[in-house]
Design goal:
The chain starts with a helix and ends with a helix. The radius of gyration is 19 Å and the shape is globular. The chain has helices spanning 3-6, 15-51, 55-79, 83-104, 120-130, 132-142, 145-152. The mean pLDDT is 88. The chain contains 7 helices and no strands. It is an all-alpha fold.
């Protein structure tokens, strides 16, 4: 008999959870590709080089890469039904949002990942608009009854 039928049945993730996980993976990977396309390889290398000039910008750059990888890990664990991945993704988004708001308002230096605005309200608006897709993903993970049930039984 085939090996396929000998393995235990694993329940598939609901559509909302699958959509959220695929959205996380897609948006993160596409953002890297778009950054490479917008800056070009040479300018991207200059960005990395400038980020490595001081300890504070190096730490923020490394932290951003770790959060990127952590979000991808959360996305794959979401498909397996790990409730900790839901909360981990929210925690990562909270850290990112707080840093981006503080950097955009000028409270944190270096402002490696910030949005400039003519006023504080405009900077806050740009930051929150950038986080709307992630808020939708969080809603897909927590609002539908099928999503809540999927994570409850694991």
């Amino acid at each position: 008999m085939s090996e396929t039928f000998k393995t235990p049945f694993v329940a598939l993730a609901p559509v909302a959870v699958t959509t959220a996980a695929v959205a996380i993976i897609t948006t993160r990977c596409l953002s890297v590709l778009m950054l490479i396309d917008a800056l070009g390889v040479t300018e991207l290398m200059n960005f990395v080089h400038r980020s490595a000039q001081a300890w504070d910008s190096t730490l923020i750059f490394i932290a951003s890469q770790l959060i990127f990888l952590y979000e991808l890990r959360c996305a794959f664990l979401l498909l397996r039904g790990r409730n900790s991945a839901r909360w981990g993704f929210i925690a990562a988004q909270g850290v990112v949002l707080v840093y981006m708001l503080l950097a955009s308002l000028g409270f944190v230096y270096p402002e490696l990942f910030s949005f400039a605005g003519q006023s504080d309200a405009e900077a806050i608006h740009h930051t929150l608009v950038q986080k709307l897709p992630d808020a939708l993903v969080i809603m897909l993970l927590f609002v539908p009854a099928s999503s809540r049930a999927f994570f409850r039984k694991r």
